Amino acid sequence: MKNKLIAEFIGTYFLYLIIGMCITPPGAAELTPIAVGVGLAALVYSCGHLSKAHFNPATTVTYLCAGTHSAKAFLPFVTVIFLGALAAALTISVLNPTGLAEVTAIEINTTRVIVAELAFTFALMWVILNVAIAKGTVGNGFYGLAIGAIVAAGAYAVGPISFAAFNPAVTLALCINGFIPWHAFALYSIVQIVAAAAAGLIFRSMQITAPNEFPEATQSNT
Q1: Domain of 166?
Q2: What is the DSSP letter of 184?
Q3: Above 80 in pLDDT, residue 35?
Q4: DSSP 134
Q5: What are the beta bridge partners of residue 134?
Q6: What's the mean pLDDT when you consider all of the chain?
Q7: CA distances for 33 relative to 73, 151, 153, 219, angstroms
Q8: pTM of the predicted protein model
Q9: Which letter, b or e, does each residue of 97-121 get, where b requires 16 or more Cβ atoms within 10 Å of its Cβ?
Q10: Which CATH number do you get for residue 76?
Q11: What is the pLDDT of residues 140-168, one digit of tens each?
Q12: Structural domains counted in the chain
């Protein structure tokens, strides 16, 4: 478990560090989705063999609902993921305080944010489930690229609407750095968790799950 948690902290830390530095002025502008997608793919490949590379509490929820993550391991994973995002947000305040001073929080259109985050968090979870734990793709070499690609595509599609968070820990870090208003944190997180749970439950109902990440998961979740 220790190695899994270390991997999750490191992966989440660098995921948000990439996101935050790319969107903080002067940033990477229109190249941000590509940078984030490529960076995420690399991080998934580096940590996937250790912890399945969640980097996202929503991913932990979707694995739990799919029956491949134990309830006992849920809280430790979610805790270190949030800590990783928090550490990255604080790092950005050191690396680029001038840029952060220029940041203005996105204007929230509740309906559009709900639809954008619900749709693309579900899409992300669906891709993760089907390339990481589906029987038909066991041992594939493209899982990291697929996950990075759907995040990049989602960022291009709905980034201007919701900042393409798709992740409660990333949402928290975006709030800390001023990109998303704090009053929207609960809305984002609830929508993301609902989308993740739906993806996991649908995936589980189709009975296409590969061997469990945690051997005890089936017993603890039945």
Answers
A1: 2-220
A2: G
A3: yes
A4: B
A5: 209
A6: 93
A7: 31, 8, 7, 39
A8: 0.92
A9: eebbeeeebbebeeeebbebbbbbb
A10: 1.20.1080.10
A11: 999 999 999 999 999 999 999 999 999 99
A12: 1
